[in-house]
Structure formats: structure tokens, C-alpha cells
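Field log, afternoon session.

UNIT: design team B
ACTIVITY: writing a sequence onto a fixed backbone
BACKBONE:
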């Protein structure tokens, strides 16, 4: 993974006076390797990158999407409402002044799309959101296992409070016509994601979590 990031960084931040790619990677690795990370760690980033590889030919700016996915959970304090903003700021702090201004803006906007503030419009926005939520389309057992990892990041919450938060989060997606925004993800994962969502919401509503 390290060499992949270094290659990406050197392509996108070519200024010879820029912060060394190895140094930026070590900072990212430090964030993602925090002992309180159980789901939002480098394994999640790696899973995202596998999807990027599968659909890169469908992206407008594949390097920008990949860079956004490297940074999108870099700052992660469970329950905080500014993680994505701070993650985008971390990226800007590492690259600003050394990369093309339009690239900086696109990556920052893509990071912010993982807050799910509104329906993504561009192809790259849609794929970034779908990739981040790809785990919803995994088989039930794996979906639940990963949900357990997320629970381990919220040990400061009681079971009831955590489950209520999860229910609100899941019901937001259940209100959409589709879970995924791209044809690629709908074809492969929509049916399973919808089934997982309905089943998990039913469990949470019945208190059988």
C-alpha cells in the first residue's frame, strides 16, 4: 500500500519542493493505525482501492477519487460531526501550494461527499460515495461482522444509544429510491444491500441487535 500511495502522491503533487510522499504516508498510516480504529482503518482504505481498480476506466479523474479515498477517514473521532471536514483540511495542509488548485478543490469536495450531505451529482462523486458504502452489499455475515467492528469504535456509547444512532443512519438510506448511485454498484450489490438494510433495521426496531 505504501508504494501505491507514494506513486499517487508523486503524480498528483509533482512540485519537487512538496512534502515528501513517504512522510505524508507515515502521517496517514499513523491516523489509520490508531488503537481505537477497528473498521475505519487501512483495511477499509484497501477495500476502497480494490473497487477503484475495478472501475477506474469509468472515472473522470481517477487519481482525485483515489486520493479522496485515502484521506476520507484520516481524521476519525467517533461521534464527531467534523471528521470529514478535518480530513479534507489534512489533505489540503499536506498538498496546498504544491498541487494544481483544481485538483485540491476536487479532492476536498469528494472527501466531503462521504458525509452524504446531498445526492452526489458527478460520476466521480457517485462512485466515491458508492465505494465508501460498498460493505453494505456484502453477504449478511460479513456485513454484520463489519458492523461489530464499527460498534467497537463507539464503546463510549451504551448499546441503546449506539443502536438508536445506527437506526437513524440506516433509515436515512432506506428512504432513498436506491442505495447505490452508479449502475456498476447497483448491478452487483444493490439487491444484497437493500436486503441487509431491511433486515438490520428490523432487528434494531425490535431490539434484537
Amino acid at each position: 500500500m505504501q508504494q501505491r500511495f507514494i506513486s499517487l502522491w508523486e503524480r498528483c503533487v509533482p512540485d519537487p519542493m512538496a512534502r515528501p510522499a513517504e512522510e505524508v504516508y507515515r502521517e496517514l498510516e499513523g491516523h489509520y493505525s490508531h488503537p481505537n480504529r477497528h473498521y475505519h482503518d487501512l483495511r477499509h482504505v484497501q477495500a476502497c482501492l480494490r473497487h477503484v481498480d475495478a472501475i477506474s476506466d469509468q472515472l473522470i479523474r481517477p487519481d482525485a477519487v483515489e486520493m479522496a479515498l485515502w484521506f476520507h477517514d484520516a481524521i476519525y473521532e467517533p461521534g464527531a460531526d467534523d471528521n470529514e471536514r478535518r480530513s479534507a483540511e489534512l489533505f489540503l495542509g499536506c498538498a496546498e501550494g504544491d498541487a494544481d488548485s483544481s485538483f485540491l478543490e476536487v479532492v476536498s469536495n469528494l472527501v466531503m461527499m462521504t458525509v452524504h450531505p446531498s445526492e452526489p451529482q458527478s460520476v466521480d462523486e457517485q462512485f466515491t460515495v458508492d465505494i465508501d458504502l460498498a460493505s453494505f452489499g456484502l453477504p449478511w455475515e460479513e456485513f454484520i461482522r463489519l458492523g461489530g467492528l464499527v460498534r467497537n469504535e463507539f464503546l463510549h456509547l451504551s448499546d441503546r444509544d449506539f443502536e438508536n444512532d445506527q437506526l437513524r443512519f440506516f433509515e436515512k438510506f432506506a428512504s432513498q429510491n436506491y442505495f447505490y448511485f452508479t449502475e456498476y454498484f447497483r448491478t452487483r450489490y444493490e439487491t444484497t444491500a437493500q436486503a441487509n438494510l431491511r433486515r438490520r433495521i428490523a432487528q434494531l426496531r425490535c431490539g434484537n441487535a
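LOG NOTE: The mean pLDDT is 95.
NEXT ACTIVITY: expression trials, pending approval
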